[in-house]
Structure prediction request, 287 residues.
Amino acid sequence: MTFFYGFLFIALAIWSAIFCMLMVRRRADLNELRMNHAVADPLLSVIGTLFSVLLGFLVAGAIQRFDEARINVQEEAGALADVFRGAAGFPEPLRTDLQNKCISYADVLINKEWKMMEQKKSSPEAWETYSDIWRLCVEFLPANNGESNVHQAVLAAISHLGNYRTLRFAAMVNQLPLGMWIVVFAGGGATIAFTYFFEVQNEKTQVLMTGLVATVMALNIFLLANYDYPFSGDVRVSSAAFELDLDLFKKFLAKSKASPTILPTRFQKPSRIINEPHVIAPLPSAK
Prediction:
């Protein structure tokens, strides 16, 4: 939910509550409402307490799911960075191919899949790129212990990448069901409606009280709607972690091309030494 629609919902809820209260006040007998205070007061306390506890738990659960989705996205980006860095331990052409696939994966997530997740969809291109990363690493046969250690570390990073990717899509569909939303709106409406059964001498005071109760209810429902789905609206999990990855990947490759790796002296091939014959100048002849 965007802030515009959220504020529109809050304003509509406040004006609806005040309008209904004024209609009840115009048509009901104020003396009769005054006589119902003894019964309405404890009932309002019970209903208000039960609904506030329910709504509080729902909002807290939605915020927790939102934080978990944000952490999973950061962990997925971290696993992708581990794959990219680990690829530096592989020989060519696997090193370049794997690093390019990591760049393609981050680019697809930022420019395509993140927008598709607003409609609860995933990118087939991102899944294909992820499969290519797996294939490149699985098909590689290490030639020595060093490559074997790097191979195992990269495989573990790719496994973590897939796990956190799955958790991201699980968070995409883990929302409150329609039945729970009906309970939320019905409970909020019933709590506000109970304030109509109290008679207040000053009409403006009762308008203010009803408006405040409706504002608190609407704000909590607005929070619940914002945090319920973490990948859409103005309050959502962004792709900033992958954008940082992509920027670092490109800088790393640009730096590698600008300054190629120089082998240590003991790994360099010996330079050819050309032995030129010594030229001895003839002695001057004696006259």
Q: What stands out?
A: The longest helix spans residues 37-86.
